[in-house]
Amino acid sequence: MKLSSFLRGPRIKPHTPKLTATALVGSLVVSIVVLVVIGMLAMGTARADGSDEHTDSQESGPYIVDINLSPGHSVLGQNQISVILRSLDDRELVTTATVEVSASGPEGSTGFQDIPAYDDQNYGLFQADIPFDLVGKWEVLVAISSDLGETMVVVPIDVAESGDGGINFIIVAAVVVIILAVIVFIWGKVSGTKEPSPEVG
Q: Is-above-0.85 flag for pTM?
């Protein structure tokens, strides 16, 4: 061994920090949390601006009639209608009544008549499932009868194609992140990490 090499001592390769599997998994978990928060905020915004539920309130005959349609952007297929009745005189809930729902749509659509809405819990909330078979403008007619009297309320709505893709994108992104996290975790278990060994020259 040369004297100069002996004096210099062993040469140690500089160690460059690498992103370990644990760190990658941690980053991916943070990404999942961010996606979940974004999804919750998006859903909260939808509720705040009423896009997930269409509400119509009218005074008709002896009643105040509150009508909710869910989803708010009515879509092809089954939709739910909820009707709340209050007395126009004293604002008290009306829990005993006959409520029937009919509708007519654009040319070529199949309307429906006299679908009963039931107050199953006796809370004054009358509900029914109603079908729409064609995109376009519809008129929903709600007929009401009780000891207070009879009346009819008309609610115009726009029926659209089902699905908006917003929440689906978040779900798909979250699934992709989870799959990547599993792959990185398995890779870390199989390959492991090796500490650099000093090189004597």
A: no
